[in-house]
Amino acid sequence: MPGDFAVGYSNPTLRRSADAMMNRSRECSSLEQFCGSPFWDADLLDSADPDVTSCFQQTVLVWVPCLYLWIVAPLYLRQLRMRSNNKVTRKMSRRHLAKTTLAAIMLLVTLLELFKAVGEFASEQDIAAVQIVRPLHLAVTVALAGILIQYEEEKGLQSPGLLFTFWLLSGLCGAVTARSKVRQMMLQESVEDKFRFVTFSLYFSMTVLQLAMSAVSGADRGEKDPSPEESSSFLSRMTFWWFTPFLQLGYKRPLTATDLYPLRKEDTSQHLVPTFHHLWQNELLRYSKQHCFKETILITKLSFLPRHSPSNEKSKAQHTDKDDTSEGKDKPTTWSLFAALFRCFWPLVTVTALFHAAGIILNLTWPQLLKLLIGFTKDKDEYQWKGYLYTALLMTVTVSGSLVGKQFVHRCKTLNLRLKTVLTSAVYKKSLTVTSEARKSFTVGSITNLMSVDAQRVADTCFDLQFVWSMPFQLAGSMYVLWRTLGLTATLAGVAASALLAPIHSWMVSKMKELERTVMEQKDARTKLMTEVLNGMKVLKLYAWELSFKAKIDAIRAKELKAIQHLGYTRAGLAFLGNFTSPLVSFAIFAAYVLTDENNVLDAEKAFMVHTLMGTLQFSFHVLPHVYINIVQAKVSLGRIEDFLRQDELSPDNVRSEMRVNVTCIILYSPPISVDDGTFSWGREEEPILKDINLCIPDGALVAVIGQIGSGKSSLLSALLGEMEKRKGDVSVRGSTAYVCQQPWIQNATLQDNILFDSPMDACRYSAVLESCALGPDLEMLSGGDLTEIGEKGINLSGGQKQRVSLARAAYSGADVYYLDDPLSAVDPHVGRHIFNHVIGPDGLLKNKTRVLVTHGTSFLPQCDQVIVLQGGRVWLRGDYSSLMEQSREFAEYIRTYSNTAGGQSDSGGDPVQMDKTEVEKDPPVHLNNLRHDSNGKVKDLTGTNGLRKRLQKPSRDRLAESRDQEQSEDIKTPGASVNQIKQKEEGKGSKLLQEEEEEQSDGVKLSVLGDYIRSFGTGLFLCMSLLCCGQLAADKYSVVWLSEWTSDGTRDTSLNYLRLGGYGALGLAQGVLSMLVHICVVKGAVLSAMRIHDKALLQLLRGSLQFFDVTPLGRILSRFSQDQERIDRGIGWLIMLWVFFALMALSTLFIVSFSTPLLVVMLLPIAYLYLYMQRYYNATSRQLRRLESKSSTLIHSHFSETLQGVSTIRAYSRCQQFVRQNHARVDQHQTAFYSSSNAENWLGVGLDMAGNAITMFAALLAILGRDSLSPGAVGLSLSSALSIDWILTTMVHIIGHLERNVVSLERLQQYAQTPAEADWTVEDHRPPDNWPAEGNVSLSSYQTRYRDGLDLVIKDITVNISSGEKIGIVGRTGAGKSSLVLAIFRIIEAAGGEIVIDGVNISTIGLHDLRSRITVIPQDPVVFSGTLRMNLDPFEKHPDAEIWRALELAHLKDFIMGLDKQLDHDVSEGGTNLSVGQRQLVCLARALLRKSKLLVLDEATASVDPETDALVQTTIRTQFADCTVLTIAHRLNTIMDSTRILVLDGGKVAEFDTPENLIGSKGLFSSMVRDAGLATQG
């Protein structure tokens, strides 16, 4: 026997166990001496009335809360010190006073107990050491708590979590001691130590009071705490109870944006963006250092190569290629941006991860408690209190898990908010500084997608990234529990089964990455084309090109949907893996357990513990495919955003800016504008546009820049603004700059805001600017005066008004240098003269400023200090007007030739700043004699008829006011108001809104909307999907029933085990297969539905009236076809499937629970009512929040689109920072709605979790009470199902929330499918002949029209007959109705009376495409689209190349096109930015020549070309359209002086209609206009 003992003890395991027992014995002996009584007595717990020892109560139950406070307090104090002092100076609150008083009393009580113990020890009484240590610990800890209370008050904190947790732990531990003391008192019927009993009772009571006061907040909301979240208690924040008043408000009445609680300071753009910007700049700097280091190494390597070696160049090339390759591999394309984001938000990410880890640990605790509960029901001899204890622990774990889980969700949403804020702001800020070359790669559509789609995808991965690290952690924890329960073999089998599917996952993820990139590329292309279509909608309608461009959009859309469909099929494969993984792992575990050892019996405890563990993992396996998808999408999106953020920015070195200093020497030697040997291009790799530029413009000079189309006039202004790349030379500009673009940029703001442009109001200067720019009469017409809102792109202003507002903005800015790009081209001649005299000219408002004026006109050149003539991108001539006339014969000939031709205008055309000039016009000057056609169509000399033409005379103030009289109602883009209607409006000067507010609906999501989606989805597919979901759930739930029956028989029969395993495996395989089939149905239905919805909305949008596009912001439409369409494409179908699946899962789970424990049905009724009430309470507010969120999102996109259109103007005025702040304000407004919506979801989630936890508690209690009649299998089935109720309900809440958000997107897009449409494109019963119009006769009989019902007439009772071949000039003062007449001929506006007949066909009876495709128009605004030149000329591909080349030759573009590499297939950039405005106008002329119809309408067709090109165009029109009827609308009267007859309109009526000679001789309205234009002498 001694030998056996020696051998046994020599075993290492036994030796360690014996040592541990001896150590525990010594520890217990030490604690017994410390307490004077036993530390632990197991017999006290092994009874029906359990208790713990007094030593345990005075040590462990005291030390646990104290140690917690002392460990956490240092970290908490450090955090408090870093917090700014937010305390508002005020009297101490009663609540704080009460907490302080209680802490003082508690300290006093503990000190009294300490003094009592010290006194007893001093008197040598028999007292244990714990009697001194315990009160000492409590006294020091309470003192620390009191200090924290004071410090928190100083920092303005209300009820933080540290002290609440401390009081909670103290209360729970104290409750155990209190129960023990009461039990002993009742057993002994007396109290041994009354003093300590009283002090403990006082201390415990005050602990409970402290806990109560920490659970509520008594602080009032002050100005510095606008949101109740800041002043709410810890418990309120954990349960989101602080958000209840807001939900009550939303339940009572509709919410507005002003009702929303503002964001916390740390969530605002002002706080987040600077931090991220600093970190991102550091990342760029780090990358640039690495890049420079690599280049240095390369240069060092190349320096060792032989200089004259034959292989030198080859070696260099090889080294360079290798370096480029390695650089491409090593270049941080995504991770550098990821690193910057992580460094910015790592504290929040860490806290979020801690909450997630706590939630995982709590989830892993459930199976253990479930095992204990099933064991309790199995062992009938267990004490009843153990069942209640297990139930209490289970409730504690589930409630804690719910609260921790909601805090995890809350912080993920906060991280989502912050990520989207910084990414959106970064993209916006970058778009203000990116170069023109980069803008070619990133169009308006693609940048819009970066903000709306890509930033959202990156932000939405907050949950997914946490899941990535937690999945292995959760899996490892589950495997550990399995190992402790079932052994190593079963655990390894589960690990092997899960690892088996990993390679397939990886392959599918790589495949999805490729498909995702394809989807985004097609989405960018579609958005880009949509942007161009919307910008050129007027041209599409005039040319009847809607179907052609719809076909192009449809082609891109088909490729996009094909990629989405392939992506969906891959997703279906991942769904199979996700739903099959959990059953496969369970199958492997059970098989390894029961088959490896015949003694292993699968009982209910083990089986349902494994099932519950797999249930927690089931959700992980289920969402794993979606996580993969989301992370792949986010990685692609993050790479796209980073690619944009890495684009080159405009170099500050392009222009050397100098501050204006009032020192004589500096002014003398530093001219305002200086260019020394400058060469400029639009890109670093492109050919220079401007070469060898040398300029020196003195202070206060007025310099005119003239030249042919494409000579580089506007490019010169771009170079001076720093918009072009400086290839060599030096550019210096002194002082601030102002810029007036040729195509005026108007903000969607009030007229006053457009003029002030963020400058402070100076009433005197403001009035002077309005007067000088002739805006006074316009303000009298506008209903709100200068506070009238101007619509997007200035839609409620005429072209002249927009140009004058743009000029007024520049004049008010008070800049030192002014760049004026053809500012007078859109105004009448006499108005142009007024503006020149009062603003630009030598005596104007800007007479002391330096001005550079780009112009085609010649009438103002004598008043300029210098004239610069550009030719071929070089300065051809430079000097003052008189010297150039004397010294340059070519210049003098140019002036003599075109001074008469340009006499009828103030100024004309030019090149826009943003244009990318790739070629320079090289056509030689062509001189054109003054010719006109007589009534017979013959050419006739008009020189003798008109005599000498005078310069434009200065108009009188009355005449100027008269010209402004009706401008508001005339413009093509102003269908919204008429003059009389405006005068009838109220006299108030409040801001008047033009654009329609986005429709808000506060009622619930309409079932009709969902019904429409299901019908477009396919009713059969939807039913099939629902049935497959039922089958999948049936397989899932029956597998649980199968497991219950398996564990109930307790058999060891091997053959029966094989049967049970086979059935369980088959059910698991069925789940995976059915899930894949469900996903395939969703893919097919979602793609089909997305195609139908998009096609219907797009078709109806293209059929919409032009007025709809005038009053609807472009950003709003783009948002619907990008962000909203994205949600429909890949959101709503999947969410409907998930909702159906989880709704069926909830019902089946409740059925199983009720079937197992029928009494639970009684408990479910009130819980179900509570659930429905909370859902209804929540929905009333949630729907409104989501619509506010969608509306604020649209504002961001509209502002962004507006910014991109005017980015050059913004940069020229140095207003980038102001616009960045405006973007921040809009982003914060959107995030405020998002944050409120998130809090509402969490509020409901907590409530539903509590309802689910109540179901679990009742199920557990019923199991305890009915354990005599319930089998362990039934208990396991009931409890495992009940435990899943809360996450099922919570998941349903999130699904419903996302579904409602997506349904809102569907509803918004469906609104466009119901857009009021124009008349039918074709009317089959009234198709005109194929050769119609064959002659070109036009007859208007008592014709009248208005822009819409309820408005005054703009054309009033016009009766005109125009014969075939006549050339009719249409003139009139601004607002006379000229352009309205053109719109009427094309039926852009419909007749209100009378008729228009063309060649015997009443145009109101035929289709719009039959009408518009047979008439040719050359519009005032030259619009071209991205694509080839061939597509822009012949989108329907009806004409052979020979005809196209002939048209280009006649339009004087052939030489230019022949010089391009791809010629007709030359790519036109977005908006035609690689063509000048004049070249685009010639492209429009080529379109007209190609169509060659019998009726041609010219609407200011040569407003953007120089006089020479104008002469060419006029010659071409006269020769090529000699046998056609031509209607010409012109401000420049010289272009219509050779017309057969001239139609003079006034106030929408025919004032005069006769030949030019007769009208001039009649001394009527036309005669006065001719005199004003300087085309005839007075007499």
TrEMBL record:
Q: Does the keyword Nucleotide-binding apply?
A: yes
Query: Major location, coarse class?
Result: membrane
Q: Does the keyword ATP-binding apply?
A: yes
- What keyword terms does UniProt attach to this protein? ATP-binding, Cell membrane, Membrane, Nucleotide-binding, Repeat, Translocase, Transmembrane, Transmembrane helix, Transport, Vacuole
Q: Which domain of life is it from?
A: Eukaryota
For bias type Basic and acidic residues, the affected ranges are 310-330, 914-941, 955-973
CDD domains documented for this protein: ABC_6TM_MRP1_2_3_6_D1_like, ABC_6TM_MRP1_2_3_6_D2_like, ABCC_MRP_domain1, ABCC_MRP_domain2
Domain ABC transmembrane type-1 positions: 351-633, 1041-1301
Q: How does it sit in the membrane?
A: Multi-pass membrane protein
Q: Which PANTHER family match?
A: ATP-BINDING CASSETTE SUB-FAMILY C (PTHR24223), MULTIDRUG-RESISTANCE LIKE PROTEIN 1, ISOFORM I (PTHR24223:SF443)
Q: What is this protein called?
A: ABC-type glutathione-S-conjugate transporter
Tell me the name of the encoding gene: ABCC1
